[in-house]
Every structure is written in structure tokens, then in C-alpha cells.
Amino acid sequence: MTPVWLFLAQRLTALILAPLVIAHLAMILIVADGGLTAAEILARTRGSVGWGLFYGTFVLAAAIHGPIGLRNVIQEHTPWRGRSLDAAMLLLGGLLATLGGRAVVAVVGEP
Q1: Residue 73: Cβ-neighbour burial (10 angstroms; 0-12, 13-18, 19+)
Q2: Between vectors from CA 62 to CA 17 and to CA 47, what angle results, nearest 5°?
Q3: Which of 10, 75, 80, 106 has its C-alpha lying 20 to 30 A from 49's C-alpha?
Q4: Which residues span the domain enclosing 96?
């Protein structure tokens, strides 16, 4: 991917992540204030297509956004460049997507 496409992908995922992060943090505050237990939260999220889409989108955007940003930081502060860096960031994105996807399934999937 060219630097222009990486720039655009990171900015697009930032636009997606911003409202999702705000909503996620607001939900944490609401849940904490309401005194819900983990079991009560899971009872509300199990089988929910809406929560699955919300957190699935969150995970996918983060799995794209994070490695692009880390790639830029590494290039600015180290001599690491080229295909090995790109491959490492692609693997990181895949790992984030896989682990995040498993978390989404754990939260919304049927036990």
C-alpha cells in the first residue's frame, strides 16, 4: 500500500473510531454507575446483532488504525523500513483482528 492510501486508511478509521470510543467510554460510566455485574452485562449482550456490529466495527477499525500509526512511529524513530516492517505491521493487524474478534464472539455469542 502506498503512503497516501495508508494515510487515508488511518484517517478514515480515526473517523470511525472516535464516536465508537466515546460511546464505549460512556457505556462504561453508565454501567459502573448502575452497578451491573459482568454476568448482568453479558446477559444483555448475548445474541445481540447490534452489539456484535458495534464491537466488530470497533475491532476492525482498531486493527487497521493501530498498526498504521505504529508503523509511522517506528519509521520516525528507528532505521527499520521496507517489507519486513510492512509484514510485521500486517501480522500485528491480523493478530489484533483475531483477538478482538474472539472477544466480540465472547461478549455477544451464545454460550
Answers
A1: exposed
A2: 85
A3: 10
A4: 3-108
When pLDDT is averaged across residues 52-70 and rounded to a whole number, the result is 98
Pair 51, 108: CB distance under 8 Å: yes
Q: Could you tell me the CATH number of the domain that includes residue 22?
A: 1.20.1300
pLDDT surpasses 80 at 111: no
* Those residues with Cβ within 8 angstroms of residue 6's Cβ, 6 or more apart along the chain or in another chain: 68, 71
Rg (alpha carbons) of the chain, rounded to whole number: 17
* pLDDT tens column, 72-81: 999 999 999 9
Question: Between the CA of residue 96 and those of 34, 48, 87, what are the distances in Å?
Answer: 30, 22, 14
The DSSP line for 16-60 is HHHHHHHHHHHHHHHHHHHT--HHHHHHHHTT-HHHHHHHHHHHH
Distance CA 57, CA 38 (A): 22
Question: Domains in the chain: how many in total?
Answer: 1
Lowest mean pLDDT of 35-44, 64-73, 82-91, name the range.
35-44
